[in-house]
Amino acid sequence: MSNRILIISPDPDDVQTLRQALGAASDGPFVVEDASTLADGLQRIEQSGIDAILLDLTLPDSLGLAGFEQVHAVAPHTPIMTLCALEQEADGREAVQRGAQGWLSKGYFDNNLVPQSLRNVIERMRVEQKLYAVQARAEITLNSIGDAVISVDMHGRVDYLNIAAEVMTGWERDEAKGRPISDVLVIVDGDDGGPVVNPVEAVLQAGQVESLAGEVVLVDRHGKRRRIEDSAAPIFDWDGQLVGAVMVFRDISDAVALSAKMKHLAQHDFLTNLPNRVLLNDRITQAIASARRSNTCPALLFLDLDKFKHINDSLGHAVGDDLLQAVAGRLLGCVRSSDTVSRHGGDEFVVLLADERRPQDAALAAEKILIAMSTPFLIDGHQLHTSTSIGISVFPLDGVDAEALIKNADTAMYYAKERGRNAYQFFRHDMNARAVERQLIESSLRLALERSEFVLHYQPKLDLENRTITGVEALLRWKHPEWGLVLPDRFIHIAEECGLVIPLGRWVLREACAQAVRWRESGLAPVSIAVNVSAMEFRHRDFFDHALAIFEATGVDPAWLQLELTESVLMRDVAASSGLLAKFKAMGVQIAVDDFGTGYSSLSYLNEFPIDVLKIDQSFVRAIDGNAGGNGAIVSAVIGMGRSLRQRVIAEGIENAAQLDFLKWHGCAEGQGYFFSKPVDADQMRAMLHAGG
Ligand code: C2E
Ligand code: MG
Ligand code: MG
User: Which ligand is nearest to the CA of 672?
Assistant: First the structure.
């Protein structure tokens, strides 16, 4: 590419000489134009395309530096060399000061020197142009990125900040320039606010890339704090000498806050904001580790609200949710801040007592919680009565890791529930064995009904005066093909828990009624048959209708049927119970209270139920033994109570003559027990009825 040169000179000889010099140049062509006045020259420049200008300082329309100033103003990026006479060299020098690239002395235009000088200045201008472009691009880039950039010289003094760095430090570039980096970039430890080595200083010392260790906070000029993440790198000159450092950093406050929030969500229960299983596991593991050092016995309380499902179903999930939150609040009020209350899911909570010294401490905590939970909750205008069952496991006896401790506390909780709720229970290792057995029984029970493995045995009730049979009680037996005869204590509560007691109870009632009819048809006098009814059966909404259907299907006279219910079943919902009992009574069915004395019934309530018979629990009868005295007093009181309610009183579990005498003496009219007969099968019972009837 040829270079276009403009000569502005009034002297045709000079122009001629210069054209000659340029034309003779061996290394590449020059295209030469000329103008004889400043005005002509300026006009030509404005048309552009000129690569270099040779400007005479003596022009007809301008003299000295003024001409240069005008040309430089219109072509600031075009190299200019002035042409000066010897006496004008001072001006030539001054022009260089103001931006000219050099001068040529008139009369000494050399054929080699002129083209060489022009080529040099044009080349230098092009390099500068490129450099400028690179610099401009760098500057724009640095100012448009979000990361902050600060550079320092080798003494650690700031020499550059981009816009992001200005925003984050609160310092403007001009103010910051020359100040020590520690003035402009104040960083402290993210955790304790303590001092942190400025990474720029570290780089200057080490001469290699450094990044901040751990979490650091940048404190800006106005005191505002930001979490930052950064790195710093050294700057070397051409010779490899360290001349400074550059640090890049970014604000990660939002990212840190977001990740903290995510972490919280991952470890907490959304509804109650309590720690969830994940965090609980961590805490248990920590507690175990510190227990090994300090000889403490961390304990776990596994809690389950007793009536939560019922509340949730009847009042709705919103009330259920509020209740769970209120429960969480109360639980927190019961423990120390070093303990962990977590929600395990549903209505289950787990409390970790981190540094108990003795297992008794866990019992105290459990008692405290039971009391706190038994106060009714007022939620959305409802007064909610709940209670809690608590299972307790203690490290290291009941487990040496989180999983075992939680599982065993859970098992113990089921035992607490079985014991009548609103109670706590420490884990025992035999519970696990029983849990296995229970699983086995549950699965066999499901098959037992289909395979007709159940039978009823009958135990007579007798008039204690004349020893005649006044009725029989039907007692369920399971003839298991491998285990033999299984008694109800081993399976009734399991059947109740898995719902099987409903079909099972229907079978019992139907079989008992059918048996009554069979005995009658075989010529026996009508005999009263008592059937035990479990809580779940009694509360089942179809209980009455099903009973009715059975009476009809079997043709039994309901007057010969007696239903045995325990006190606690009756008391659970007094209004519903007495309504249902009234319906049965209207059919002629008799009602007995089983295991009387072991519940918490108040006499005034019992008075409200249409009850015919009170069956005094075996435990009282057993207590008669020995030289009666105090224990017997309780029995006589219970007999007295029954009599005062004008109901028939039957004593259960009479095993010897002493008990019989005592009961007769105290006015008990009827009894049942091994002393007269164990429960026997239907044929044997028939024989006894035949003999005694
Ligand atoms: P329960 O209704 O109190 O029945 C009396 C229990 O005491 C029977 O136990 C009976 O065999 C036992 N027994 C009777 N006399 C004596 C005695 O002199 N000494 C001793 N030690 N025990 C005596 P069983 O048959 O094992 O039944 C236990 C419980 O299971 C019953 O207590 C009853 O609550 C329940 N059950 C029995 N059959 C059924 C049933 O068909 N349905 C339901 N829901 N529960 C039943
Ligand atoms: Mg009974
Ligand atoms: Mg009983």
Answer: 1
